[in-house]
Structure formats: C-alpha cells, structure tokens
Design a protein that fits this description.
The structure is a single chain. Helix 4 (126-140) packs parallel to helix 5 (189-207) and helix 13 crosses helix 15. This protein is globular. The protein has 540 residues and is α/β, with parallel strands linked by helices. It has helices at 26-60, 70-74, 100-107, 126-140, 189-207, 222-239, 255-258, 261-267, 280-289, 310-325, 344-364, 377-388, 421-439, 454-469, 482-500, 502-507, 510-522, 531-537; strands spanning 11-12, 92-97, 113-117, 145-147, 154-156, 165-169, 176-182, 185-188, 213-216, 247-252, 272-277, 329-335, 368-371, 445-447, 450-452. Strands 6-3-2-13-12-11-10-9 form an 8-stranded parallel β-sheet. A 3-stranded antiparallel β-sheet has the order 1-7-8. Strands 4-5 form a two-stranded antiparallel sheet.
Amino acid sequence: MSAPAPSPLAVVDAEPLPRQEEVLTEAALAFVAELHRRFTPRRDELLARRAERRAEIARTSTLDFLPETAAIRADDSWKVAPAPAALNDRRVEITGPTDRKMTINALNSGAKVWLADFEDASAPTWENVVLGQVNLIDAYTRAIDFTDARTGKSYALKPAEELATVVMRPRGWHLEERHLTFEGRAVPGALVDFGLYFFHNAQRLIDLGKGPYFYLPKTESHLEARLWNDIFVFAQDYVGIPQGTVRATVLIETITAAYEMEEILYELRDHAAGLNAGRWDYLFSIVKNFRDGGAEFVLPDRNAVTMTAPFMRAYTELLVRTCHKRGAHAIGGMAAFIPSRKDAEVNKVAFEKVKADKDREAGDGFDGSWVAHPDLVPIAMASFDAVLGDKPNQKDRLREDVSVAPGDLIAIDSLDAKPTYDGLRNAVQVGIRYIEAWLRGLGAVAIFNLMEDAATAEISRSQIWQWINAGVVFENGETATPELARKVAAEELAAIRAEIGEEAFAAGKWQQAHDLLLHVSLDADYADFLTLPAYEQLVG
C-alpha cells in the first residue's frame, strides 16, 4: 500500500517475533498511530457511556427502544448497501482462530465464510496477534502450508474458487494492546487488529475479487457502530480504495444492542453486511446488565437456556425481521459440538441436535449460521440448502408476522428452568478449564465435546456471581454462597489433578485459573469483562 507515512509511529514494546517485520512495517504502524490519534478519544467516551447506561439499568431494571431514534425505525425507505458477490451467499460460516493449521482447514472447510478470529477464540498474546496477521497474508498470497510436527500430516490450500470468504473479527473496544503504544498510551486492540489487517490486505483482497470484511464484536449501541463507520470511511480514503468496499457484520451479543438493531444497521448502512445472533455473550450481557434486578432476572443453567426460550425467540426473530427489512443478512448462532473420534453414539445424538437447530434457523428466515468444526459444515449446509435451494439467501422473506415488545427481550422469568447444583459445578468445571487454556495462549478450547471460547467463561463466572448474590437455593437444598463456590472449585481442581497427573498439572496454569475464576465470580465489584484481569496475567 502506498500512503504517506505520517510521524510519529506506534511503538512496539515486545520481544521480536519471526517475520514480524512483514506486519509491523513503518507504514502500517503509522496507519495504526493515526487511527489511534483520531478515534481512541471517541472510543473512551463510548466506554464511559456504557458505564452510565449500565447505572441507569441498575436504577430502572428495564430497557426500551430509543425514543430519539424512532424516526429511523419508522422510515421504510432506507436499506443497507447491496451485498458484494463474495458475501451474498453465507449459508454456512465456520469460526476459529488464525493459527496456521486452522487458517488452512477453515479456508478448505467447504463453508461459505470463515470468521477469522482475533477476539474470543484467540487469547491475545503478542505472538497470536502478529503471527495471525502473517498467516492471513500468507493465505491471500497462497504462501501458506503446514506440517503437523506430531502427526507428520501436511496441509495446503485448495483451489481459490473452493476457499471460504474471510470475515475477520478484531477485538472488542474494551481491550488494550499493551505491546503497541502511541504517545505513551496502549493502543486499543480493536484498532491494532483492524489496522494491521486492513492496511496490508485491503487492496490484495480487492484484487482477489473479495474485500476487507469484518465482524464487529461486543457492540452495545448505534453510537459505537457510528464510530466504526467513521473508521471505515477514513481507512478507505487513507489507502485509496473506493468508499463502500469495507463490509461489516455486527454481532448482536449484548442486550442493549438488541434494542438498537435498526439504528446499528443505519449507522453502517454503506458498509453493513448483516447482523449475527450470538448466545453465550448475549446471556452474559443480560446477567451483567440486570445482575441486581432481583429474582426475575436470574438465569437458570446455561444449557437450559436454548434458542427456543421465549426471550431468545423474541431476540432472534426480531433480528431476522430487522435485517430483511433493511436488506441485510441475518446470520444465526453457533453449533459448538466437536465430533468424537471414539464415540459414534455421542456423535449421532449431537448431530441430530445440530440438524434440528439449523433446520429451525433456516425455517425462521436466517440466511446462514455458524459451526465450530469442519465435520458440521455438511449438516448445516443441508439444512440451509433445503430452504434456500439455488437462492443465495432469503432476504426476500420479510417476517412481517414478527412483533416484539420491549419487555419480550428481557422476559427471563418466562422460563420454567431453575439454577441447579450441577449447573454450578459445570460452570466451575468449564470456567477453570477454559481460563487455564487461555492463560497458556489458547482461545478456542474443546471442553466436554464442545468448542468453547471466552464467552463461555464469561457466562460461567457471571452465573456463579449472580446465583450467589441472588441467594439461589438449589434443588438439593444448598444455598449458593461464596463458601459453596470455593468448595466446588477445590473439588474440581483436585479432580483435574487426578485426571491429568501431577506432571501435567504442574506444567499447566491450573491453580492460577482456579484463583482467577473465584476472584471474578466472588468479588463484590463485578468485573465488566473477565479478560481484563486475565490479560494482566497473560504472558507474552
């Protein structure tokens, strides 16, 4: 990319990595510095606004559609920009981090889209941040291959026409990148991930017949979408590509964003590609925002909250209606199952559940959906093929039958399920196991045949926190207390030690993970994000 390099540059403060000079060029660091200078002050204001809004929710225990943006919702004339050809058919999307093996496997998976993840499926070590960028550059230049040192198996890319289209997900607005500073201050991780990727690949992707496409995580308001839109406008001018080349899909994974879906699409309308319905982060956001709202907001075990729960149906159906009204893609949730190589019966039952889930999404009007493993691509593909046929999407299905009132989205007490003692134990088990892997630099972790990412740990620790603070009484008569959580955590840590052996236990970060889980689950001052204190303990 040929752009004038303003001075000064963002400063790298890290041990050198192999090939980092290909990513951390002077021109790229100048671009990141300019993004930081122009946009970080607004990002800071929006983070402060999040805190103000959360305080208002604590005071009122309610949310509503915004009166000040009613005219945007009422105006039927506006639509988002038409989808580019490479993003018009999104019926199956695979997600995963950008390590070398995953990059090849995801691109080769048969999915239409790969969500190349620098966010929840990637622990933000400097190595993951930089080498993930190297891997994507290598993929676009077809200079990528991989041989597994353990198995000797080699991996290489299929022909270009068979590869998934990449939609890259940068980190959320709340995270800093301590290894990259400007004028003495850490640059937001979102600007580092976006900036390096966009600078190096925007023109390259255009030349390949695609473009710089993004998933935007953890968005909480249309004003945050406006900030991203302004970044896109600036970035496209900076490198000299046409306005509207960027396309962004916003994850509606916070409860506040669910009330601003139309406004989010409106702010990004020249760059919008669609909205996605998450699950664990969405539930985490409900707990976080309504954690002091009383018994009516207490969620049961996470596995008891399926997408057919009334308040989850309201959310997903409103998302489909909103997207199709505005000409955008509606993308469904994750099938997180990881097939077992040893247990065919486990696979059979799980595959049936995945099929039912994807059949439901396709039947509800979604244009595509997520899977975590290549073996699930054909199952999800069959569900959407059955509904779409030769059509690339079903945006013509407007779902005008859907009507969602503000209270429907937060009708948590419409569920019959209650928190259970086994639910507490599972939250502790999964929380410890995930955090331990994250602290070792792994963000996508197979736990109990499910692919888990940071959202899993967030909902796990949030439920422990909520149940204790609500004084939940479990079906066995025990009350959720800090003492009970500590007892269960000690038992689970001992069970892990017995399961993996002393040597592996000592080599891992198990005690550290146990302590961190208890800290964020029991501290009276609820941490906005687990990854904030965890990042302070992340080495590398």
